[in-house]
Amino acid sequence: MDELAHKYEVEIKQREGRQKLTDTVKKELSISGMMDEKGKLKLKGVSPKMLKRMKQEYVDCPVLGTEAHFIQCFVCKNFQSRVMGKVLCKGDSL
């Protein structure tokens, strides 16, 4: 199996409690059909237990240059894979 071509390996960090998604991220999620009208996430192939864990995680995004909620990273076009506490990122500009 070939390794995915990626530019960055970004470490996933944990926070206590949930983080709030920004309004722009919520809007993008609802447009793409990943969030319903009530604000509940509907990510295909992600169990409720994993989703709860994802809500407490964040990454230092090399593309945006800031901390980003992991869910924002997960739905980004640069996201390739999550492997052993790291995210493989293509690193293309948004």
Topology as a string of helices (H) and strands (E): EHHEEHEE
Described by strand count, sense and barrel closure, the largest sheet is: 5 strands, antiparallel
- Range of helix content: 10-25%
Radius of gyration based on Cα positions: 13 Å
Report low-confidence residues grouped into runs of 5 or more. Answer: none
Task: Tell me what portion of residues adopts beta-strand conformation.
Answer: 15-25%
Query: What distance separates the N and C termini?
Result: 29 Å
Q: How would you sum up the global shape?
A: globular
- How many E-type strands? 5
Q: What structural class do helix, strand and pairing data support?
A: alpha+beta
Give, in spatial order, the strands making up the sheet with the most strands: 3-2-1-5-4
Alpha plus pi helix count: 3
| Mean pLDDT across residues | 88
